[in-house]
Amino acid sequence: DIQMTQSPSSLSASAGDRVTISCRASRSVSSFLNWYQQKPGKAPKFLIYAASSLQSGVPSRFSGSGSGTEFTLTISSVQPEDSATYYCQQSYDRATFGQGTRLEI
Amino acid sequence: EVQLVESGGAFVQPGGSLRLSCAASGFTFGTSWMAWVRQAPGKGLEWVASIKQDGTDKYYLDFVKGRSIVSRDNAKRSLYLQMNNLRAEDSAVYYCAKITLFGGGWSFDSWGHGTLVTVSS
Fold first, then answer.
1. Is A66 left (phi over 0), alpha (psi -120 to 50) or beta?
2. Sign, CA torsion A55/A60/A62/A66
3. Which residue of B47, B59, B100 is in closest CB contact with A96?
4. Chain B within 8 Å of A68 (Cβ-Cβ)?
5. Per-residue model confidence (pLDDT) at position B103
């Protein structure tokens, strides 16, 4: 099984900050990497697919990069409504999620 | 608008069985892969099972393989998860998710609100 490891596990930022969340795969997943946002008590929301493609309707302050085993989710100017837990997920071999990164604004 | 509505979650004793359902609307159900993803209380997301458009291909998390069966009824626009021999570790909110394909990969692009399964004596 492919293991996904996110860092940090949690972070605190101020509105307007640039925030970066990392995701590492235990072996290459090519660009088959997605990102999701989940707010407390809510279902996850799909943000980014294929490592760097923004899902329709997602604000442009969100971006993704990487390939192989190293990936990054960046929020260029974080807003209060971005407080949530973020998950990466690989689809190279079935599906596994990272453990999540809790972002507090 | 895509809508996925799960039902069937309940409190069940270890060793018991449960059948979860997901009613889909707002998209062409019969042409979409579908999946179940779960989340234990206070924990992260865990993919459970996926099923192809016509139901011929199915994939499972190793932990549930042999105890669970994913199925679908395209005429009823419904997805199901039959879970047997339930264990405490199966306690979670179970989400129904629509899968979208892209260039060899895939993602969960729409999610239901989830149904809670609690396994306890």
1. left
2. positive
3. B47
4. no
5. 82
pLDDT digits (tens, 9 = 90+) for A15-55: 999 999 999 999 999 999 999 999 999 999 999 999 999 99
Report the alpha-carbon distance of residue B112 to residue A44 in Å, rounded. 9
**CA A78, CA A16: separation in Å to the nearest integer?**
5
Q: Give residue for tokens 């018991």.
A: B16
Q: What is the pLDDT of residues A77-99, one digit of tens each?
A: 999 999 999 999 999 999 999 99
Whole-Å CA distances, A36 to A87, B85, B108: 5, 31, 9
> Is residue A31 within 8 Å of residue A51, measured between CB atoms?
yes
Token pair 């129904």: residue:
B96
Angle (CA) B36-B102-A45 rounded to 5° is: 50
Which residues in chain A have Cβ-Cβ distances shorter than 8 Å to B45? 36, 38, 44, 87, 89, 97, 100
| Cβ–Cβ gap A44/B102 under 8 Å | no
- Tracing tokens 């998209």 back to the chain, one arrives at B27
DSSP state of A105: -
